[in-house]
Amino acid sequence: MDVNEIYNSLVDITKSFCEECRSRLDSVSKEHKTEQKAIQIELGMYSLCMRAGCLYMTATNSEKGEAVLKLRTPICQNIMQNCFPHIYELYMSLEDEGRMIMLSAIQAELFMRSQIYEGYKAELSAARSCGDEKNIFEFRIKVRSVDRVFEAWEKWRKENNIYPNLR
Question: What is each CA distance from 48 to 11, 94, 95, in whole angstroms?
């Protein structure tokens, strides 16, 4: 499997979540404002997973996969080095082609985990500690949505034997 095939698979997984949300949103009555808001937040998180991980670039032009890697390599190496040293050690032990495959399979998740997800988890914890129901509602949806994407990406990596055990 090459870089673009990996990106296309991750994009397809994430797009399916977006489509599912749009379908649910279309079926919710306009009177159910809270449910609509919850689904809109969830949809926003799936869209963010596509954009923040630069997967959207590959979805709009499959030839950009290697360009995304070139752009993301120094960023992801820094993230791995500082936040996920066990992954960085494995990454550095690989030859160039192996590094490209590994990075294409995990770069979106690395970025989301370190730059967005951990912050959302902290916000959820802070909201819970002070009983802020509005923020508990919002950040619980955000964390669950991103968790769902991570789980789907990990399941796909396992099914395709592409660095399946990187947690």
Answer: 12, 30, 31
Indicate if the pLDDT at residue 167 is higher than 70.
no
Count CA atoms within 13 Å of residue 161 on its CB side.
Answer: 0
CB 39 within 8 A of CB 21: yes
pTM of the full structure: 0.90
Higher-scoring residue by pLDDT: 70, 74: 74
Q: Which residue has the tokens 């649910």?
A: 24
Residues 57 and 50 sit within 8 Å (Cβ to Cβ):
no
- Residue 98: CB atoms within 10 A of its CB come to 13
Give the pLDDT confidence score for residue 71 in this predicted structure. Answer: 81
Helix axes 133-159, 118-130, angle to 10 degrees: 150
Q: What is the pLDDT of residue 92?
A: 95
Contact 58, 68 (CB under 8 A): yes
pLDDT at 134: 96
CB 107 within 8 A of CB 69: yes
